[in-house]
Amino acid sequence: MVNEHRARKRFGQNFLHNPGIIDRIIAAVNPGKTDYLIEIGPGQGALTDKLVDHCCHLDVIEIDRDLAAVFQQRYADKENFTLHTADVLKFDFASLPLNEKPYKVIGNLPYNISTPLIFRLLSCKHLFSEMLFMLQLEVVDRMSAGPGSKSYGRLSIMTQYHCKVEKLFSVPPTAFKPQPKVDSAIVRLVPWAEPPFPAKDPAMLETVVRTAFSQRRKTLQNSLKTLLDKSLLQALSIDGTRRPETLSLAEYVSISNALGEDHL
Ligand code: SAM
What is the C-alpha separation between 130 and 88, in angstroms, rounded? Predict the structure, then answer.
């Protein structure tokens, strides 16, 4: 699309150029004529070109003004296309029109902003029916990890609290230009209509999990001592000498619920 564009490292630009991988991603998105899509970081349009003609409406958010200018021209005659030249970390998703269907979000995400972006999207997940992302393989492994695994932590628990997490397939560096140094993977996040383990106060759950994992090597009762007394863990039949990475999502929710909303 923009042959002369030089990939900008600061914007995490690794453009997809493998047609087989692009087709697999599009098949996973499965865009339909009644779908409202949001693409984050369309770049040179590897996915965008295949999305715009197969959906009801496509919003794209691109930080790079040079790339945005190309889209502005290229899709000037497309009525179902809206370009937002913006930093997605500052973008107000609630400002988008509410349609008869929630949005599907797609993005081959810049790796340097993926974790803060995921937390931002989770905070307005009611706007989305699903999110399909290309991320660093290691990040996808963290999102989908269960208790006891090295990758298990705050990102696993908070993503799984809000969404069903499905790792779809891995993508090698050779699928991109320029090639990244790490493997990537596609993940699908589907927000739960009702979380399987509802927290009375999700902000409290976030606080408990962040505090527990701030000192991963400490026992639970040590790392959580600013928030609770170990008797509360005993009352919940949770051994306070366990490490934070051994507790399930359900156990974190039970701690958060026991602490109550007015503790914050
Ligand atoms: N979707 C394209 C593809 O698959 O080839 C490009 C993917 S590239 C890994 C990431 C894209 O996100 C780039 O176009 C980059 O300019 C854009 N980007 C980086 N940081 C961004 C931000 N904070 N807000 C919006 N877009 C951003």
Answer: 17
Ligand 1 neighbour 11 (Cβ under 6 A): yes
Are residues 31 and 104 both part of a single domain?
A: yes
Partner residues linked to 22 by β-bridges = none
Q: Please indicate, yes or no, whether residues 121 and 240 belong to a single structural domain of this protein.
A: no
pLDDT score for 1: 53
Residue 260's Cβ-side half-sphere holds a number of Cα atoms within 13 Å equal to: 4
For residue 55, give its domain range: 2-191
The pick from 108, 117, 174 for probing ligand 1's pocket by mutation, whose C-beta has the most ligand atoms within 8 angstroms, reads: 108
Separation of 168 CA from ligand 1 center, angstroms? Answer: 21
Q: Separation of 198 CA from ligand 1 center, angstroms? A: 34
Q: pLDDT tens, 195-208?
A: 999 999 999 999 99
Mark whether 208 and 79 lie in a shared domain: no
Residue nearest atom 17 in ligand 1 by C-alpha distance: 41
Nearest CA to ligand 1 atom 6: 43
pLDDT, tens digit (0-9, with 9 covering 90-100), for 144-197: 999 999 999 999 999 999 999 999 999 999 999 999 999 999 999 999 999 999
Contacts of 245 (CB under 8 A, 6+ apart): 147, 148, 149, 150, 152, 153, 213, 216
Reply yes or no on whether the pLDDT at 264 is more than 50: no
Regarding the beta carbon of 192 and ligand 1, being less than 6 Å apart is answered: no
The CATH number of residue 210's host domain is: 1.10.8.100
Q: Give the model's pLDDT for residue 216.
A: 84
